[in-house]
Amino acid sequence: MPVTRTRWRIMNTNYPKAPLGIRLVTALSGKLCSRWQANRLLWFKCSILTLTYLAYMCYHMTRKPISVVKSVLHRNCSGLQLPPEFVHNMGEPPNDSTWCDYPPFDGPDSAALLGSLDSSFLFSYAIAMFFSGFIAERVSLRYFLSLGMLFSGIFCYLFGVAKVYDIHSMAYFVFVQAMAGICQTTGWPGVVTIVGRWFGKSKRGLIFGIWNSHTSIGNILGSLIAAHYVESDWSMSFIVPGFLMGVFGFIMFLFLVDRPEIVDCQEKVGDRPGGYKRLEEGKTGESGDSDVDEAVGSSISSEQENPSLRSLHGSFHSNVDVNERTPIIGSINRTPVNHAAIGFAGALKIPGVIEFSLSLFFSKLVSYTFLYWLPLYIQSSTTLSPELSADLSTLFDIGGIVGAIAAGLISDSTGMSATTCTGMLLLAAPTLLVYQRFGAISLSFNICLLFLAGVLVNGPYALITTSVSAELGQHSSLNGNAKALATVTAIIDGTGSIGAAVGPLFAGLVSSSGWQNVFYMLILSDILALLLLLRLAGREITRRVRRRNIRIE
Predict the structure, then answer these.
(1) Which of 111, 370, 403, 413 could be stapled to 459 by a disulfide with Cβ–Cβ 3.0 to 4.6 Å?
(2) What phi and psi values does residue 288 have, to the nearest 5 degrees?
(3) The pLDDT value given to residue 361
(4) pTM for the predicted model, two decimal places
């Protein structure tokens, strides 16, 4: 149906500030618009979850090719057949085992050079993350994410173009990786802030565990795409994901509604006549009533209507030792909400922030070492080809999906996040040792151990970066200050990103002395992550036992 002048006017008057794609859908689909008015909020929420899921999936899809292509940038070329054009041009076949490698990765220091590529990406990512979060709160997130995805795709494309134009400068590869790391920092603060604006503070481990699977799905897609081209033309392993990233960035520009008020989506608050709240990330000073105010208001009205609830509420607070990380939502006796942004020093004083940040440092170190080096390790420890090694490495990410959901479910049912992470880390250390010792015995054994390692390694990592960060950002000492959530998340994820940068760098240096030393490093990191959470886990167990005794009495 053509867009008439009347429809164009309707398209621009319904949601004049909405993205072009939303206005087009509104103008071209009159019946659809009339049907969705009653469920308009639900439709937009579903679209936000879908778009942010796909966006961050693309971010990880463009991170993965480098780990797959490592296996052909430097390998033993002795048993490979020379291509006909090479024989025709060179005559006699070369005697060395590096004729098929891609300079400058054809020397004995190839492992260190490949590790420096990972580090240039990850260190720039970790440093830029703190600044990116600051910028994300002050600009349009639709443009922020769209441009971030576009430039991330461009730099992924530029890495592959090096083979097309025969570029062998190490400085070029380091520059491309560093710029890609900076552009990739637009992803996490962007999608988390948008989801927070639309869904408020109703964050649970299960929801985050399922939504956080975009990381593993992106890794899997990146591995499969790169593996398809790695042996024939490794430049396409970067060009194709980069192109897809740019296409999805354009889709985000067309359809992403980064603020609910843009499409007039306000949600009623309780039974207050005419009372609405904007589904912001909790900035009550800018968006009216927050989730905290809603919960407090409903709690007060319930206690006024039922005296027994009021006595029960007072009895609970007098007899039960409240979790130190329990949000203040529902509390009546509290001081007014503070709107001032919390500083880093204040955020570090929140109980649990330092422990979880340092634990994530070591957890992310292990996870990202697998992310960047697992395909190469599988190829070197088995007889599998580079393509099959990349395909097999996706089992670690599949296990990560299961681990994230499992960690969220256990944390939700027990209310013991630190204990959940501690238990999974305790099982992860021996699993890594068994995988290093016996993973190469058979393919089936390798599959089972790799999947189990993904569950136990990525479960704590996913839980800490999502629901634990949100929980700490709502600590009672913050008095409902939603601006602390972004700061706490930046501290925890930024610290973890530094660990993610250190891990692959050390793996590149240590692997030259034997892969078993890399696994010893990973096991030690896993144990340190475990030890850092023991105090919090002990307090959670003590608190749970105390509450159980109170119920028995």
Answers:
(1) 403
(2) 80, -140
(3) 92
(4) 0.71
